[in-house]
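Progress note, project year one: complex with molybdenum atom.
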Amino acid sequence: MGGDPVPTYCPLCVSRCGARAEVADGTFRALLPDPSHPTGQALCLKGKAAPEILYHPSRLLHPLRRTSPKDAPDPGWEEVSWDDALDTVAERLLAMRSAHGPQSVGFSSSSPSTSAISDAVDWVQRLIRCFGSPNYCNYMELCGWGRYLAPLYTFGASVPGSYLPDLESAGCILFWGYNPSVARLAHATSTVAAVRRGAKLVVVDPRKAGLAARADHWLRVRPGTDAALALSLTHVMIENGWYDADFVREWTNAADLVGGRSVWDLLATRCAEFPPDFAADITGVPADDIVATARTLWETRPVAFYTWSGLEQHSNATQTLRAIDVLYALTGSLDVPGGNVLFPAVPSNPIDGMEFVSEADPPAVGVDERPLGPARFGFVTGEDFYTAALDRRIRALVSFGGNMVMAHGDSARGREALRSLDFFVQTDLFMSPTAEIADIVLPVTTPFESEALKIGFEYSEEAQSLVQLRRPLVPPRGEARSDLRVVFDLATRLGLGEYFWDGDIDAAFRHQLAPSGITLEELRAHPEGVRVPLTTRYRKYTEAGFATPSGKVELYSQTLERHGYDPLPTFVEPLSPRSRADLADRYPLVLSCAKSLFFCETQHRQVAALRKSARDPQVEIHPSTAASRGIGAGDWVSLDTPHGSVRARAKLNASLDPQVVFGQHGWWQACDELGAPGYAPYGPDSANLNLVLRQTPSDPISGSSPLRAGVCEVTLLAQREHADAVE
Ligand SMILES: Nc1nc2c(c(=O)[nH]1)N[C@H]1C(S)=C(S)[C@@H](COP(=O)(O)OP(=O)(O)OC[C@H]3O[C@@H](n4cnc5c(=O)[nH]c(N)nc54)[C@H](O)[C@@H]3O)O[C@H]1N2
Ligand SMILES: Nc1nc2c(c(=O)[nH]1)N[C@H]1C(S)=C(S)[C@@H](COP(=O)(O)OP(=O)(O)OC[C@H]3O[C@@H](n4cnc5c(=O)[nH]c(N)nc54)[C@H](O)[C@@H]3O)O[C@H]1N2
Ligand code: SF4
Ligand SMILES: [Mo]
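Model obtained:
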């Protein structure tokens, strides 16, 4: 029996688009956009494929236990009951904690930007903190820490991140290393609306991707040189007086003296090292464009900006983001209408378990190497996790989703690290190259089979005011359980029941909701959500200052200086044919990568509705670069880095600098329905880009992995195979 579409939202990626679901005869049939929802203007193909994901034949439906050794070709999976599986997990973790301390147990989760783990991620953190482990991996070194740490040491808060672009009122929108048309549909639709009403748009991206085609200024930066560009823009702004002098005087540490010179003078001197002509040579962005962009940023402010993974996956990520934050500070747009605003939130009780963290806890792995980095906050980078697993400081891993070996550079090292653990449990929807290494694999529900509470949708005051309880559309397939259920069940078995309402999720939600004045019953009766009116206050810094040591925006950071880092934003040439003349003959091209419109990260290649739009892994190459190598569109090529070769099909892209090449990570899965092949995660025929990228040299502050600037060569695979055969 059909019925009216059920109001819901799609949590498959960070966009979290408002939606309506068609359910008929107990079957989830379709997901449709819901324009009445603040994020519901449109759905992407992934969201529309939600029923296919839910009903996919290769879903994990039962808890599994490995019966063969880690290096056996077949893990020998045996179905076990949930009770057996969870009892084993609890027993192993408790034994590990008594023998080696809570820090010997690492936890991890998929990124909430690429999965519905956002439903449960705060509760996962509560579990970790109650258990007492300081070691949590969540991929933020690939798309979060630069954007968190740089503004933390500049503004005392996460900008952007917590302070989101107020696209509705922005005079100028600046997207830097961010392509919302692929990555975050709700931002893309609001940006298109803003441009239509006359907002200016600046896009900094080596590719003319997404909204770059509509931009007033598209700056085609060479991968990894963004700091030089930001310093040059700032130089032009300072030289021309294109900055908010009142804000700089009142609210930054510009006037502070360091060694007899003002911070402003030191900053100006640093920026003057990058006059437009010089920056043009480094970045590939014409000098005139740098000047014109600086003028636009000034004349059309307030500026709302967003940066993302184009800037995060670099060995100089934090300083690059610092350079952009300083530039942004000069526009005076922070927390003003049309700038980047911390929107108010519906009052709720925090549940992430911060109250269980104390100074006396053992430190997180990586704190010695990067004292201001993720470890300071209880997070571990993939690189540090692998090292700690290999040297046995971490001996167990509890992983809620995530495909670690495929997501991080150096997949082979990842496999070795995971194999060296004494115990590894993974919850997932599908078997993956990572889950294959686990001792126990627990089947989770898709978000459309489970309930979740969402308090606020981040984007705007209106979106923030919406509280929604997403209801299960259909019962779970097989024995799958939600991550939330797994967290609560595991917590009670670990003796932490008193902090988890003895496993009663409704009671936990009631606690969380208490300050909002909304009840669970109200939310269940209103699947479209309940609104709590909110009023945004702007320029909140005028009340309590900034949450930095000086209470001001720190153009010069003494915190960074004390730890031996440059207190002013700085540019460092990435791994490139320029910095490595010794590699330039063999690897003359610059390699970066970007996400696919059709898949989330390493997922979804098995879904026919998506795979049919992108059958093969692709590498984008400039037509002239391809032609000089005898490569035509669609040819299979070998993408060669100093660490090995992987295969992909050439896609010609005339918008690229001829020296720049763009790869795609995440290819391993087959799509049986289409007869589209899978690819080995390791070895000669692999299409796994991360097999030939490395986690080092990582950013000295944040530990970010340099996946987006490297050196490579591209060769026609047929010719190469022939050459190999002749030798
Ligand atoms: N469809 C889809 N949506 C997703 C995801 C997905 O896999 N697929 N993943 C989700 C996740 S986990 C995240 S973190 C977000 C990420 O969202 P984004 O960061 O927007 O994702 P990307 O497309 O990888 O990168 C953005 C842009 O950075 C550019 N870029 C690459 N190197 C550089 C550089 O050196 N400098 C500059 N300035 N730009 C560079 C790329 O060309 C690309 O257009 O998306 C989320 N949403
Ligand atoms: N070369 C290169 N590498 C990259 C990137 C890049 O741009 N270039 N991007 C990086 C980025 S930004 C990130 S965030 C990481 C992402 O890395 P991951 O967080 O590992 O993301 P996915 O590859 O999407 O894998 C998600 C896994 O979780 C499972 N899953 C999906 N939904 C759920 C759920 O609701 N619950 C549970 N328990 N499991 C679920 C999926 O089946 C899959 O196995 O990858 C990074 N790797
Ligand atoms: S962009 Fe697509 S996958 Fe992401 S939340 Fe929206 S519909 Fe779902
Ligand atoms: Mo990410």
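The first helix runs from residue 45 to 48.
The CA atoms of residues 241 and 298 lie 9 Å apart.
No further modelling is planned for this target in the current period.
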